[in-house]
Amino acid sequence: MEPQIPPPLTSDSLTFKVHRRQPELVSPAKPTPRELKLLSDIDDQEGLRFHIPTIFFYRRNPTACYSDPVAVIRRALAETLVHFYPMAGRLREGPNRKLAVDCTGEGVLFIEADADVTLVEFEDKDALRPPFPCFEELLFDVEGSSEVLHAPMILIQVTRLKCGGFILALRINHAIADAAGLSLFLKTMCEFTRGSHTPTVAPAWERHLLNARVPANVTQAHREYDEQTSARTECATGDGETLVRQSFFFGGGEMSAIRRLLPSNLANRSTDLEMLTSFLWRHRTAALRPDPNKEMRLIFIVNARPKLRNPPLPPGYYGNAFAFPVAIATARELTEKPLEFALRLVKDAKSSVTEEYMRSLADLMATSGRPGFNTDGAYLISDVRIFGDVEFGIWGKPVYGGIGTAGVSNLLECSFYVSFENRKGERGIVVPVCLPEKAMKRFVEELDAVFNGLVSTSKGSKSSNKVIMSSL
Fold first, then answer.
1. From CA 278, how far away is CA 343, in angstroms rounded?
2. Using an 8 Å Cβ cutoff, are 387 and 359 in contact?
3. Which family does it belong to (predicted)?
4. Which H helix or E strand runs over 365?
5. Backbone torsions φ then ψ of 170, nearest 5 degrees
């Protein structure tokens, strides 16, 4: 029996009531073409056939006391759908599982809501980060809305708060857009809330640019799609143990401590995200305590847009344009070797994504039945800090903008990097993590040891960093 995820509320968590109106369909503000548009061979792979949730919190603007965010956003949404009209259609599946958008213009689901809570109450309860209290009330799962085919591709709920602020929660079918594509869609909505009449960056379909070649020619090793020859080992579910979600903040102090665990020449040639990713992979594996010979996989999502040159993708391309490169090591190797071992694997996986890699990946999808990536022993990382800049008109940038939870769809073993500012005003990255209860306790202890100077650095001395790990 699959373990049940407990509600993300504890006895002292924030509780509130949400009053929702009936969901409605918002269609494009003007007539749009009725046509069938094929997705790319990157879009319609099995691993992207799910809906992914995001959430944005906005403060009250005293000068906007006569502006209703629900009305403003509903109107901007209708205007945006004129330019992104395929998003108002429905997905269909054809031969060889090929996905296409039937541009019906039916629209996307929209929910108007009010909550008897203020933004300050979220902040006072340390609840302005995933997992969010009552998240299922802030993004209500309308029956049938999470289907991949024949359903609205976007669900939006705008919830007014007692203080005059509001929450925008959104769920989108991942097959139609990636994080960069969704960001473009939202930023276009923001422009319309400020009175624009045309998008600054015109959306571009052009999905044929990421279709398989003729003839198809798989030239790269795409180990992320290795066939799962046996039942998935449930190393991340604790054999029926209760799963818990928790967020962790990594600011300058934490990143300095991680850097000191590495040889200086390697640290200086690595990005913060590469170091953080290898660190989380290593310590999460240690906390899970899998069989030492268990093959552990780190899947690091890489945006391929800068890699594509022949031809390049247009600036307004909003389809999926990324790869799932994988780093692989046994649990023993990850936990017994120094952090630099994991970091080198992560850097190698990241650098493997080239233009030829993407062309080969499209060929693989078209010739292999559009498989999903191998999730056995996997930990998936995605950087969604791009959502921190979704500025809605007079309400400005969000207090929080990013993923709504740890884990998505049927893959709970994934985390997202979200831009965040803590109570001290320090900018950093907040990372939601989902683990079995005992493993989470060990994970916190692992991180606490590092950030309290209890773990040796690469030079054999004790780390002098005294920054407490923020377990949020």
1. 5
2. no
3. Belongs to the plant acyltransferase family.
4. helix 355-367
5. -145, 145
Contact residues for 187 (Cβ-Cβ < 8 A; gap 6+): 201, 389, 390, 391
Nearest to 73, CA basis, from 405, 395, 450, 398: 395
* Ranges of CATH 3.30.559.10 domains, the chain: 29-198, 226-471
pLDDT, tens digit only, all 472 positions of the chain: 233 333 333 334 788 999 999 999 999 999 999 999 999 999 999 999 999 999 999 998 877 666 799 999 999 999 999 999 999 999 999 998 999 999 999 999 999 999 999 999 988 777 788 888 889 999 999 999 999 999 999 999 999 999 999 999 999 999 999 999 999 999 999 999 988 999 999 999 999 999 999 999 999 999 999 987 655 544 444 556 788 999 999 999 999 999 999 999 999 999 999 999 999 999 999 999 999 999 999 999 999 999 999 999 999 999 999 999 999 999 999 999 999 999 999 999 999 999 999 999 999 999 999 999 899 999 999 999 999 888 887 888 999 999 887 776 667 789 999 999 888 888 999 999 999 999 999 999 999 999 986 544 433 333 333 223 333 3
pTM over the 0.85 mark:
yes
Q: How many CB atoms lie within 10 A of CB 95?
A: 5
Residue with tokens 């939202």: 186
CATH number for 226-471 (one of 1.20.120.1460, 3.40.190.10, 3.30.559.10, 1.10.3720.10): it is: 3.30.559.10
Q: How many residues does the chain have?
A: 472
Query: Residue 221's closest CA among 376, 361, 378, 380?
Result: 361
Query: What per-residue string of b and e applies to 204-214 under the rule 16 or more CB within 10 Å gives b?
Result: ebebebbbbee
8 A C-beta contact, residue 172 and residue 139 = no
Are 267 and 302 spatial neighbours (Cβ–Cβ below 8 Å)? no
* Token output for 120: 């300050």
Residue 426 tokens, joined: 């320090």
* DSSP state, residue 259: H
Other CB atoms within 10 A of residue 107 CB: 20
Calpha distance 52→404 (Å, rounded): 9
The topology under which CATH files domain 29-198 is Chloramphenicol Acetyltransferase (3.30.559)
What residue type is 462 in one-letter code? K
For residue 212, which of 399, 442, 44 has the smallest C-alpha distance? 44
Strands 243-250 and 295-300: unpaired
